[in-house]
Amino acid sequence: MSVSVNKIKKNLRKIREKISGACKGCGRDPREISMVAVTKTENLETIKNLLDAGITEFGENRAKDLAVKSQEFDQYLVRRRKPLTRPVRWHMVGHVQRNKVKKVVEFAQVVHSVDSLRLAEELEERVRRMNGTMDVMLQVNCSDEPQKYGCAVGAASHLAELIASMPGLRLVGLMTMGPLGSGRDETRNSFARLRELFSEMQDSGIGGSDFRHLSMGMTDDYEMAVEEGATILRIGRAIFQ
Known about the structure:
241 residues, 8 strands, 8-stranded parallel sheet, 9 helices, 45% helix, alpha/beta
């Protein structure tokens, strides 16, 4: 079942009001913050309605779903008569298995979840075969949860330097997820730790001027993420329910 464009617009207004409120409280400009609509359980009709509501940044958790939905959507865009205000971009926000790298490189424009040197090397090799470049973020496990993906905090700076040196990859920032099933203090601490890492890396010149994004905050914690410096929010449920 698809979600109507009117419902999406109503939900987006609520989200943006909350973002503006969080920005006001911490002295930030809401224009610094973008939103990726995570469409993992949504169908093509709903994604079309997202576009009509002004959203052009879509996120997927699984490579298979990314490939299917982006191809279907590209076919729709060919038939669509109304011009786009901005180009559509697909973000891979979930864990990337190395045997799915080819699909991810083919269909995503941004990967938020690079968490190992080996994965970065395989992404870069595939990107260079296509004579292109890809925007990537380093995923950091700021809550130190063994069941969660992401590189360790202590290894992040060195790994970021290595990724930033790869010609086929453009390191544009860091990503983390709040701790699973934890309280607000633990979540805030994870976001604050990522911001501290980000500032340290910027001071060291890692990634240069491309390195400017903090991808953190989802439906249950995006206001807190804004307060801690997020520039990209990955929101699903709050848009569609």
